[in-house]
Amino acid sequence: MRKTPVICLIISVIRLLTGRLRFSRKYLDTSIEMESGKRFIIFRYITKYPLTQVDGECVFIVSFKFARLSHKANKLTSIIPMLMITGFPGFVAKMYAVSPDDGYWQGMYQWKSIEYLEDYKKSFVFKMMNKRAIKYSITKMEMINIKLTNFIDNHKVVN
After folding, report:
1. How many CA atoms lie less than 13 Å away from 17 in the CB half-sphere?
2. Is 30 within the bounds of a domain?
């Protein structure tokens, strides 16, 4: 019951209204380069507040290209699924990025543990993203005992 989209949406709205879920400007417009050489620009960063450190935290990164809609349309329509994600058990933070070179999207998450991540990967919202993406375009990466902000700091493109 706690993982259903409607419950997650309600939890997120309550967190937003009470200040326990916040949009951060810290990494906006930051360019990062992945090991593949692909570059992404961060355009949204949302996080639970206050941030607490937990042993076993994990980072999940998924890159993909949508089958339809423009970047602008997808950026706008991603708000509703975002609120389903931020209310999901174990959510800590998420950054959204896009590659200006080829239109690939990248979701970069921090979860409290690998168990919460595994639950998320079985969720409606994750399955919906996979259905909207071009199948061959989806790549995933998981890292344990790392903070998302550390990953970003280590992959920043220095101009």
Report:
1. 6
2. yes
List of E strands, the chain: 21-23, 31-33, 39-48, 58-64, 91-98, 105-111, 139-144
Range of the domain at 10: 5-151
Q: How far apart are CA 51 and CA 49, in angstroms?
A: 5
Q: Stretch 35-39: mean pLDDT, rounded?
A: 93
- 156 falls within a domain: no
- CB contact set of 72 (below 8 Å; sequence gap of 6+): none
Contact between 109 and 63 under an 8 Å Cβ cutoff? The reply is no
- Quote the pTM value: 0.92
User: CATH number of the domain that 53 lies in?
Assistant: 3.30.70.100
Tens digit of each residue's pLDDT (9 = 90 or more) over 53-106: 777 899 999 999 987 767 777 777 788 889 999 999 999 999 999 998 888 999
Number of domains in the chain: 1
